[in-house]
Write a structure and sequence with these properties.
Blueprint lengths: L2 H18 L2 H38 L10
Helix pairs in contact: 1-2
């Protein structure tokens, strides 16, 4: 989720919580959104790091590599 979508959802939740009077719910949902965003960024970082390290290794393990036409 990029920053614009993140802030969009924060504003939507804030507006809904303002009209319903659930400020504590807004704070909890905001913390959940922040946590999920950070987890997503960390997983993307791990994935890109893994992909850059092991892409050549995985490419050599392809079972049909001998059948590729050059």
């Amino acid at each position: 989720m990029d920053k614009t979508m993140f802030y969009f959802w924060v504003v939507v939740i804030a507006v809904i919580s303002f009209f319903t009077g659930e400020i504590a719910t807004f704070m909890m949902l905001f913390l959940i959104l922040i946590t999920l965003r950070e987890m997503h960024q960390t997983l993307l970082s791990f994935y890109h790091d893994w992909k850059s390290k092991y892409s050549a290794f995985v490419e050599n393990l392809t079972p049909f590599r001998a059948y590729k036409k050059h």
